[in-house]
Amino acid sequence: MVEIDELLTEYSESHQHPINKLIHWICVPLIVWSLLGMLWSLPAVLPVNWAVVLTALSMIYYLRVAPGLAVGILIVLTAMLLLLALMEQAGLPVWKLALLVFVLAWVGQFIGHTIEGKRPSFFKDVQFLLIGPLWWLSFVYKKLNVRY
Length: 148
Fold this sequence. Notes:
By secondary structure, this protein is mostly helical. Helix content is about 75%, strand content about 0%.
């Protein structure tokens, strides 16, 4: 299995331009939240909704590839799920807001890659769709001086 540092380095190769990095810093968490929001809104077949199922499956991957970062991403994902629950309780149209944010955040990502002049990493390996949030979180860890 590839080490997390290698994956983060490879992901970083197409995220060098300061504007692209800033866009990704904003858009990566928004895409994660919006994807969870759209899944949150689907009718549940199991006792839990689809956003929780995706979170659990993602955590299996994160625990395998980066146990130290998995702790942080679990906190982030849990906060996002709690926000979705609060939004739903408040009667907000979660799926509509999530869809709008999803589209706008992806437009932002592609604008960033146009500025960068490099294709998104997930075009090479779909695994990088899951690495993006860890890349974002690795900067948070570094700022807080937390090792992963």
